[in-house]
Amino acid sequence: MTNIIYTDVIHAILAINPDAQVNVNAEDVNQITWLNGTTPISNEDILAKQAELKTAYDAKQYQRDRTQKPREGGYPSIEDQLDDIYHNGIDGWKATIKVVKDAHPKP
């Protein structure tokens, strides 16, 4: 599974103007080609939006940690969770999930 990180220059531009059409060379705000009449966005605005997106992304690290593969400390697969409910009831399942939540608490 590929993780997409939405903090690059293109995503910052699209967060400001979802209809923007651009080419960005080497993730460099000084190498943006604005296409098809797209109104250019200032480098300062793009960099500010990029920082905002990064802050939001970093704030949710605990969520990514919780959903990683079980052998890496994340939630069990849906199949294993349903099996846990079947064999151990809801309280047993809650105990399993609590271990992951306690290992990766919200900040």
Major sheet summary line: 2 strands, antiparallel
Helices and strands, in N-to-C order? Answer: HEEHHH
Mean of all residue-level pLDDT scores: 87
Major beta sheet, strand line-up: 1-2
Please work out how many helical segments DSSP would assign.
4
**Rg (C-alpha, Å):** 20 Å
Total separate domains: 2
Poorly predicted sequence stretches spanning 5 or more consecutive residues: none
N-C termini distance? 26 Å
Number of strands: 2
SSE class: mainly alpha
Give helix % range: 40-55%
Shape: elongated
β-strand amount: 5-15%
Element layout with pairings:
Layout: H1 9-16, E1 22-24, E2 32-34, H2 43-59, H3 61-66, H4 78-103
Antiparallel strand pairs: 1-2
Helix pairs in contact: 1-2
Tell me about this structure.
This protein has 107 residues and is mainly α. It has helices spanning 9-16, 43-59, 61-66, 78-103, and strands at 22-24, 32-34. A hairpin with a 7-residue loop joins strand 1 and strand 2.
